[in-house]
Amino acid sequence: MSLRNARSKQACFQGENRKPGIADVRTTLTRRIERKNDPPQEGWSWEALIKQEFDANGGSKLPPEVEERARAEKARALAKLYESRFSVLCGRAGTGKTSVLKVFLNGLEAGEGKRPILLLAPTGKARVRLIDRTKRPNGSVRDAYTIHQFLMRNDWLNPENFALKLKSDKKFGAPTVIIDEASMIPMNLLGVLFRALDLNQVSRLILVGDPNQLPPIGPGRPFVDIIAWLEADEERAKGLARLTERARHQDHDSQALQLADGYLRDDPTPGDDTMLSKVAQGDVGTCRDSSLISTAALTQTTV
């Protein structure tokens, strides 16, 4: 699917007639996107939970107006994740996706008790990071699995050659299922994962990631296509929680990330030409930015 088609609101899933798993993805999302969960109890405040989380970590060094925008944006995102049967949390590096997840999980346990939560990630490194970044306030950790671990446990992966299975008698679900780093997942793996989930038990299915990261090693780019599909319809777009405000002081002022932003699919910003001029002149600011500048640009231009 071309970006031009996505922006003209003629979005479809990439390779619809030739990629395995696409029917599973399309059917799952179409059925879930129109259904909603009940809103939280009266008096519930995501803003209060965000304040509690960030104040506990020493607050922020961001300018007050930026901090206010960032917190309001996160509160809106949290409401979408809670009330949607299917939702996507997306944003660039440093916008606070993992922080939002942590507040969300703490809020779920505070409001609903310790109900089962299934946390999944495509790689071992992403799994470890997800466990570390979503610790409870008391320091205890929540279990997370790689997608392949989950599929193996439920007999959707051939133990002899680790090939994906299209059928199995076992399924597993939890009230909340969160799939992190979803931009890395190819279409066939996502399709089999949706088959392996007992969706009758799932109240919230949440994909998290950055659509501007490198594409999957495998068929399709379902995360990018799902976002385009959500954006193509006003009602479906209510399930898209997009973070734009960088929440960390060092990332908010990072010239490397500003340069990377110039290569995104989004509309260019007025400062793009100025940033490119600085790079050409070797004026890239701090040592941290100097070391990241070429990596950031190369990563984004390959998308």
Description:
- The chain is of the alpha/beta class.
- The chain has helices at 3-7, 22-33, 46-56, 64-83, 97-112, 124-133, 147-153, 187-196, 222-231, 249-252, 255-261, 272-280, 287-301, and strands at 86-91, 117-121, 145-146, 176-179, 204-209, 240-243.
- The protein has a 6-stranded parallel β-sheet with strand order 3-2-4-5-1-6, sandwiched between helices.
- Strand 2 (117-121), helix 6 (124-133) and strand 3 form a beta-alpha-beta unit.
- Helix 4 (64-83) crosses helix 5 (97-112).
- The relative contact order is 0.16.
- The model is unreliable at 1-20 and 290-303 (pLDDT under 50).
Q: What distance lies between the first and last C-alpha atoms, to the nearest angstrom?
A: 13 Å
Please give the share of residues in helix.
40-55%
> In one word, what is the shape?
globular
Decide which structural class fits the backbone: alpha/beta
The ordered H/E elements are: HHHHEHEHEHEHEHEHHHH
The pLDDT mean sits at 82
Largest sheet: 6 strands, parallel
| Lateral arrangement of strands in the main beta sheet | 3-2-4-5-1-6
Summed up, the helix count is 13
> Which stretches of 5+ consecutive residues score pLDDT under 50?
1-20, 290-303
Number of separate strands: 6
Measured by DSSP, the beta-strand proportion falls in 5-15%
User: How many whole angstroms does the radius of gyration measure?
Assistant: 20 Å
